[in-house]
Design a protein that fits this description.
By secondary structure, the chain is an alpha/beta fold. The protein has one domain: 3-Layer(aba) Sandwich (Rossmann fold), CATH 3.40.50.1820. The chain contains eleven helices and eight strands. The protein has an eight-stranded mixed beta sheet with strand order 1-2-4-3-5-6-7-8, with helices on both faces. Helix 1 links the parallel strand 3 and strand 4. Helix 4 crosses helix 7. It starts with a strand and ends in a 5-residue tail after the last helix.
Length: 269
C-alpha cells in the first residue's frame, strides 16, 4: 500500500513497474470514475501492452485516499494528478481517464501538454450533464445517501446483460459504490457540475482515443463522439454491449483498442 501527499491530503496509489526489456515504453496513468477506486482498472491491466509502467490512484474522496471537505473542482483534481506525477518522477505519460477521470485528464493536459504523450478518454466528455441535473443529484444524495440512487447508478454503469448474468460481480461493484464516502461523492458531483472543458478540448493537440460503451447510460456514445469531434487529433471507438465501465465489462476489446492506438502512435512496439 502506497500513498503520497497532494496539496493538504493523502492520495492512495499503486505503481506497477515494468520488467526488463521495457526501455522506451510509456507510463500509463489511470484516473478513476465517480463512485469507484483504482480497482476499476484491474480487469483491463492484463490486456495492455507488456513493458508499460502502470500508475493508478484513488481520486480524493474515493477509495483509500483522503476525503477533504468539498465542494471539489476539476482543477483541484488535476492538481492531485500533477502532485502524483511529480512525486513519482513521471516526466511524460499517457493519461487514461474514465468518466470524471477523463475530465481530469483533459484539464491536466490543457495545463501541461508537454507532459502528455497521448490521451485515452473513456466514457467521458467535455461537459457531462447540466448544472441543474447535478444539483438535483446532490440534493437527492443529501436526502437519501448513495444507497437511494444506487439502482439507477448501476443501470448506467452496466449493460442489462451484465446485471442479469453476473449478479455476484454486480453485488461487488455495488459494494464499492456504497462504500464511497458520501462527502467525497457529493464533492465530486459538484466538480462535474461546474466543469466545462469545451474550450480546453479544442487546444489538446496530442493524439487522443475516445472510447465508450454502446450501452453507457451516463455518457452515451453521441456525447463521447462529440468530444472526439472537438479534439484536433482524436479518434472515436464504440465498445459493443458495454455500459459506463467497459474496463469491467469488455476488458479484452478495450485493451486491444488501446494497444492498437499506442502502436499506431509508436508509443509501444
Amino acid at each position: 500500500m502506497r500513498a503520497t501527499l497532494a496539496p493538504g491530503h493523502a492520495l492512495h496509489f499503486r505503481d506497477d513497474e515494468p520488467g526488463d526489456g521495457a526501455e522506451g515504453a510509456p507510463t500509463l496513468v489511470f484516473t478513476n470514475s465517480l463512485g469507484t477506486d483504482f480497482r476499476v482498472w484491474d480487469p483491463l491491466l492484463g490486456h495492455l501492452p507488456a513493458g508499460c509502467r502502470l500508475l493508478r490512484h484513488d481520486q480524493r474522496g474515493h477509495g483509500l485516499s483522503d476525503c477533504p471537505p468539498g465542494p471539489y473542482r476539476i482543477e483541484a483534481l488535476a492538481d492531485d494528478l500533477a502532485a502524483l506525477l511529480d512525486e513519482q518522477a513521471v516526466e511524460r505519460a499517457v493519461l487514461v481517464g474514465l468518466s470524471v477521470g477523463g475530465m481530469v485528464a483533459q484539464a491536466y493536459a490543457a495545463r501541461d501538454p508537454g507532459r502528455v504523450a497521448a490521451l485515452v478518454l473513456c466514457d467521458t466528455a467535455h461537459r457531462i450533464g447540466s448544472a441543474e441535473m447535478w444539483q438535483q443529484r446532490i440534493d437527492a444524495l443529501g436526502a437519501g445517501g448513495i444507497e437511494a440512487l444506487a439502482p439507477a447508478i448501476l443501470e448506467r454503469w452496466f449493460s442489462a446483460h451484465f446485471r442479469e448474468q453476473r449478479p455476484a460481480e454486480l453485488a461487488v461493484w455495488r459494494n464499492m459504490l456504497l462504500r464511497t464516502p458520501l462527502e467525497g461523492y457529493v464533492a465530486t458531483c459538484a466538480a462535474i457540475r461546474d466543469a466545462d472543458l469545451t474550450e480546453a478540448a479544442g487546444s489538446l493537440s496530442m493524439p487522443a482515443l475516445c472510447l465508450v460503451g454502446s450501452e453507457d447510460g451516463a455518457t452515451p456514445p453521441a456525447l463521447v463522439r462529440e468530444l472526439a469531434g472537438l479534439l484536433p487529433n482524436a479518434r472515436f471507438a464504440e465498445i459493443p454491449d458495454a455500459g459506463h465501465l467497459p474496463s469491467v465489462e469488455a476488458p479484452t476489446l478495450m485493451g486491444r483498442l488501446i494497444t492498437d492506438f499506442l502502436k499506431e502512435q509508436k508509443l509501444v512496439r
